[in-house]
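SAMPLE LOG
Freezer: B-3
Tube label: C17
Construct: single chain, 301 aa
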Amino acid sequence: MKKKKSEIRMFCEFVVPPMLIWAAVVVIPLIYGIYLTFTNWNGLSPNYDIVGISNYVSIFTDKTFLTSLWKTFIYVFFVVVFSNVLGLALALLLTYGIKLQGLFRTCFFAANMIGGVVMGYIWNYIFSFALTKIGAVTGWSIFQKSWLTSPNTALISLIIVAVWQLSGYLMVIYVAGLTNVSQDMLEAAKIDGATPAQLLRYIKIPMIRSSVTICVFMAISRAFMSFDVNLTLTAGGPFKSTELLALKIYQTAFSNFDYGKGQAEALVLFVIVAIISIIQVTVSKKGEVQAVMEAKKKFNN
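STRUCTURE (predicted):
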């Protein structure tokens, strides 16, 4: 009986407070936010009406929302692919045993330590002044005009900045995965005559599939939620060519004072990210064990 009371007491002391905090900052705001999607609240007035699903009908017939959604998918695809490829390449390079690799790891990771707002302003200066100076001196037409002024290159600029920032963070995760790859297996494969490319393809990548799963998941979630860099680097311009979905939600809710519709857009974004992330993690997890077993089988003995 005393043991049971002790367990109940420990549960109340260590489990209940975190659950209450989690409910207060996550569950209740989420439920209230879903409720607001069915209203026409402008974010300021104490009075509003229930409008049913009209906000959802409105956003899926809104060409600007659909355009932002399409631009976001393009942005996410390229950011996820290039940030993971670059992050893995840096991790392979910085686990190869080169001199000062610890310093290089710190330097590459430092980009992730810069706040999104500050980074947006820094890269705005680079694209608008530094690169145009290079274009003026060298005569290279590609740099003679700021990339942020053209709809054809502004989104590319946004992708470059996101990849530059995110790849250093993913590099750290890949480095952790690569350092845990069995050295005995690598040595056995080398004795069997495996080339560096074969070691990478058949041992290293299969053995870090869990790291790949984590990195892809984090890249997807961060890319979909991109807001601060988008706001400070391009502000959605020129001509809304770089207005990603997070910025579109902000503009709807706080610039157009249509909080109900903005909340509905945010909920749609949440559902999209949740579905894609669940599918990605599920598919990746299924392949992890199989990939490891195949790697061990291929170079066994």
